[in-house]
Automatic annotation (TrEMBL):
Residue ranges constituting the RNA polymerase sigma-70 region domain according to the UniProt record: 6-67
GO BP of this protein: DNA-templated transcription initiation
Family according to the record: Belongs to the sigma-70 factor family. ECF subfamily.
Subunit-level organization: Interacts transiently with the RNA polymerase catalytic core formed by RpoA, RpoB, RpoC and RpoZ (2 alpha, 1 beta, 1 beta' and 1 omega subunit) to form the RNA polymerase holoenzyme that can initiate transcription.
Gene Ontology MF terms in the entry: DNA binding; sigma factor activity
Protein name: ECF RNA polymerase sigma factor SigJ
Residue ranges constituting the RNA polymerase sigma factor 70 region 4 type domain according to the UniProt record: 100-151
Gene3D superfamilies according to UniProt: 1.10.1740.10, 3.10.450.50, Winged helix-like DNA-binding domain superfamily/Winged helix DNA-binding domain
NCBIfam families: PRK09636.1, sigma70-ECF, SigX4
InterPro entries xrefs: ECF_Sigma-70_Domain, NTF2-like_dom_sf, RNA_pol_sigma-70_dom, RNA_pol_sigma-70_ECF, RNA_pol_sigma70_r2, RNA_pol_sigma70_r4_t2, RNA_pol_sigma_r2, RNA_pol_sigma_r3/r4-like
Amino acid sequence: MTVSTVEELRPLSFAVAYRMLGSVAEAEDVVQEALLRLHSTDAVANDEAFVTTVTTRLAIDVLRSARVRRETYVGDWLPEPLVEDAMVGRVEDEETISLAFLVLLERLTPEERAVLVLRDAFDYRFADIAGIVGKSEANCRQILSRARRRIGDERPRFDPDPAQRSALAARFLDAARDGDLDGLVALLAPDAVLVGDGGGKARSIPKPMAGGAQVARALAAFYRAGVDMGITLEPVLVNGQPGFRSRGPDGRLVNVVGLDVEDGRIRRVHSILNPDKLHHLGPLSDLALRPSLK
């Protein structure tokens, strides 16, 4: 097994592991172990199938061990974000990498999550999925049906035109920078939801806030205060969808915000402040941290 072959499979392994776990750090650990096993195993018939199988099984084990931690998590749990520069990155035209979709997957058991990810994100055949998760094809079909029912009608449906989503996000960013309450209300859906994830370590709303007008007032207040502290907002892609990141006066990262655009309005705002979920994105500011952690 050559090093180049192993490295060529790294993106696939990470794509599976991240969708399974919603954690960059945990996904990278799983990828490293899966590729190490490939490199050290002789006579592998199909490298891609081997890596996908090992990655999925390792991720299932991690989910089982992480369930207690997530059940006791302080506040709302959001995934560790994948961030790309809005000017050079590309908007994913699929929903399975979005923050909203990964949050929904938290409702599923590890096996349900694996079957749904392999089928809906990667279009694996049921025969292949059965071999990966160690179930019969009929059982995998039942698991998929049950998983889809558990997600139900809440599965996100993003506007299909990436350019329109990005333009709407740009107007939202301008309104946020200006503290423009009326502008924010006009861009948010009437039933818009704001979710903050501070993990008990950063200042964040304790529970989701619902209602476009209420969310707009909160955001206008947040960003007016941010301007006073010298915080700047930069457009980025967050898990393939429009968003922005906040930086302190010293250039260090404060938080990452992802926006879900549906029917020409912003329906969900995900604000990730927990420093444990942002370390992979560079140096972090302490502006959002709770006083006891400074």
